[in-house]
Amino acid sequence: MSSSNAIGVFDSGLGGLSAVKEFLHVLPNEKIIYFGDTGRVPYGNRSRDTIIKYAFQDTNFLLENNVKMVVAACGTVSSVAGKALESKLSVPYTGVVNPTAFTAAHKTSNGKIGVIGTAATIGSHSYKKRLKKLNSEFEVFEKACPLFVPLVENGFICRDDQIVRLVIRRYLSELKDRGIDTLILGCTHYPLLREAISDYMGDKVALVDSGYETAVYAAKILKEQNLLNDENSVKKPEFFVSDTPDDFENVAGLFLGRNMEHTVTQIDIEQY
Ligand code: DGL
Predict the structure, then answer these.
(1) Can you say whether the dihedral through the CA atoms of 135, 141, 144, 149 is positive or negative?
(2) Which end of the chain is more exposed for a tag (fewer CB within 10 A), N or C?
(3) pTM of the entire structure?
């Protein structure tokens, strides 16, 4: 199917594109194989066992394509299944929680950090635990925003859209009132709403994008382990989904700023 030596990136749907966008920018000579589990999105309100099962199937698909690294560009998988994945994989792995928490810890000035994510991510307190390990004096305010993922998956990402603005206000008003100066977008879908979130939170609140931070961290691991490709030619990413590619192509095209028509392949993830 695909060539080897690629970086494998997966998410429940479109969210991991926030990592892919950065990979395409910083590592254009690396091949990216992306899997979005659009047939089973969202993961964020599912049980732990289901999330772990899906995470292993997604990873198996990538490994079958001989990827040299697995990136769980998904806050939910990283929070719930990250340890299980890491212990079983024989290639380097990263999720999104550690690199993102690390950046937020360095960005905050007043020590008040907001974290938004799916119900599973917030329920696991993964970011909060990590932040508290980095500095026990941080005040961390968490909020699950379950409507954000369906908004993004259905293409509601425009900062001027009234529905988008309303949902953002509904979820984020309490974090705004807490006086946070840093907000972790702890689900990789949320950077697709970044402009609208930033409009609401204002420019005094730094937004930390989990997809972006993870791609930067993954690039660092590959460099340290001498796994970067030496060929000097730009590689075309390959995209796979588990449901019809049409919606994915439209929204992904908007977000990545490229025409994605007829570039996405549907696979049967249940066989992995
Ligand atoms: N992008 C995901 C995350 O970072 C997925 C959310 C979902 O499927 O609920 O958590």
Answers:
(1) negative
(2) N
(3) 0.93
